[in-house]
């Protein structure tokens, strides 16, 4: 986060924008997706999830906050769930190892965020009191496309990877997705000395009617001028007539500790980029984020209207790291998702009833019964 920009933002106190920034520890890692693949266990790919303990193979379109009993987020009233793909490193010998997530940097005196277990940071931005409408119970949305493998120039400010140039978040000198050198839509093609940060931003306009849509996207939209840059105080102007209701800008921020995988001796012999999302994507263009709203009562609206900064706002209750860490969700799919495994095995594959193919296929695409573990690098 650009520090001097935040100072400037704080200086325009008369505008009283709200910038919520708070950490959430992992609540579960599991191969389910109640938004895109409800009632499917396993779902096509693995996710890492934060938030409330209602997360399950399916989630009812109702007030989630009435069903949850705990959350891994620092704001005690946020029982929402946020989830993304995991990241893996593919070594020269063909083995894969999950890239760990680490706590984000200290900002606004928020020590909770610097002590989370896995998980990531969530942002909500409002231009000021009455500037946006909080989401309604049952609301959910998806941004990004797990199957995307080509660059989309219209999304360059909405999904990116920052390649930190050194330890302690070195290179964090521009707002997310706005550093022309360190931010890329694709996964970085060279070792990042300080790890990698993912940023995923959601649309800021709503049709005012539908809490969801068949593709989980059509009920929301970007401003008529295009997706808004992340400024911490503005969410863009002019929603389209089809989606006239302004909603807060939500952003997910994940820090991946890739430093253990920086040795070129472990990278593929051809020097190709060795990081993969758990969708099987090694481009990074398939980065995406799922969201199911679950704030209690009118707590989010109070915060959005409160002119607050960081993880303390409008008198809303907050948790300690110890309290948040007690919140867990049991995995619904039994799978060894950590450590090392081979994502490519020579196995028979049938297409239809007659066409038999023999060859290398992705671990993420083969039946789970055919998967085998493999030694680490």
Verbal overview:
The chain has 377 residues and is mainly beta. The protein has one domain. It contains three helices and 21 strands. The strands form five sheets. Strands 10-9-11-15-7-1-18 form a seven-stranded mixed sheet, with no helix packed on it. It has a five-stranded antiparallel sheet with strand order 2-3-4-17-8, with no helix packed on it. A hairpin with a 4-residue loop joins strand 5 (87-90) and strand 6 (95-98). Mean pLDDT is 88; it is low at 1-13 and 343-377. InterPro entries: DUF1996 (IPR018535). It holds the Pfam family DUF1996. Residues 1-15 form the signal peptide. This is DUF1996 domain-containing protein.
Write the layout of secondary structure elements.
Layout: H1 3-11, E1 18-24, E2 26-30, E3 47-51, E4 81-85, E5 87-90, E6 95-98, E7 120-126, E8 140-143, E9 159-163, E10 183-184, E11 196-201, E12 205-206, E13 220-221, E14 245-246, E15 249-256, E16 275-277, E17 289-292, H2 299-304, E18 309-310, H3 321-325, E19 340-342, E20 344-351, E21 355-362
Characterize this entry briefly:
5% of the residues lie in helices and 25% in strands. With 377 residues, the chain is mainly beta.
- Rg over CA atoms, rounded to whole Å, is 20 Å
Q: What is the strand tally?
A: 21
Strand content bin: 25-35%
Order of helices and strands: HEEEEEEEEEEEEEEEEEHEHEEE
Estimate the mean pLDDT confidence: 88
The helix fraction, in percent, is under 10%
SS-based class: mainly beta
């Amino acid at each position: 986060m650009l520090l001097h920009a935040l100072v400037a933002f704080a200086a325009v106190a008369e505008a009283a924008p709200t910038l919520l920034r708070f950490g959430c520890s992992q609540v579960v890692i599991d191969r389910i997706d109640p938004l895109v693949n409800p009632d499917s266990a396993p779902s096509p790919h693995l996710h890492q999830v934060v938030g409330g303990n209602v997360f399950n193979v399916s989630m009812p379109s109702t007030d989630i906050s009435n069903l949850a009993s705990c959350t891994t987020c620092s704001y005690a009233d946020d029982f929402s769930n946020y989830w993304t793909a995991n990241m893996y490193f593919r070594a020269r010998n063909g083995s894969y190892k999950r890239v760990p997530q680490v706590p984000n940097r200290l900002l606004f005196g928020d020590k909770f965020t610097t002590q989370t277990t896995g998980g990531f940071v969530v942002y909500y931005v409002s231009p000021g009191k009455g500037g946006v409408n909080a989401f309604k119970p049952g609301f959910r949305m998806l941004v990004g496309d797990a199957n995307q493998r080509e660059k989309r120039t219209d999304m360059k400010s909405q999904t990116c990877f920052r390649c930190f140039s050194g330890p302690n978040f070195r290179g964090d000198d521009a707002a997310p997705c706005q550093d022309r050198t360190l931010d890329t839509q694709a996964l970085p093609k060279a070792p990042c000395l300080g790890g990698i940060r993912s940023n995923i931003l959601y649309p800021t306009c709503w049709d005012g009617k539908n809490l969801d849509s068949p593709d989980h996207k059509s009920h929301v939209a970007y401003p008529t001028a295009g997706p808004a840059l992340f400024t911490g105080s503005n969410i863009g102007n002019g929603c389209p007539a089809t989606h006239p209701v302004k909603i807060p800008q939500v952003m997910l921020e994940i820090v991946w500790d890739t430093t253990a995988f920086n040795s070129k001796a472990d990278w593929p012999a051809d020097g190709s980029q060795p990081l993969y999302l758990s969708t099987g994507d090694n481009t990074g263009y398939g980065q995406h984020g799922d969201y199911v709203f679950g704030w209690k009562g009118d707590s989010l609206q109070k915060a959005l209207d409160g002119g607050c900064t960081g993880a303390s706002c409008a008198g809303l209750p907050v948790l300690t790291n110890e309290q948040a860490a007690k919140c867990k969700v049991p995995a619904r799919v039994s799978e060894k998702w950590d450590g090392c495994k081979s994502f490519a095995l020579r196995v028979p594959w049938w297409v239809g009833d007659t066409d038999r193919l023999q060859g290398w296929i992705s671990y993420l695409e083969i039946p789970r019964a055919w998967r085998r573990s493999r030694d680490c690098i």
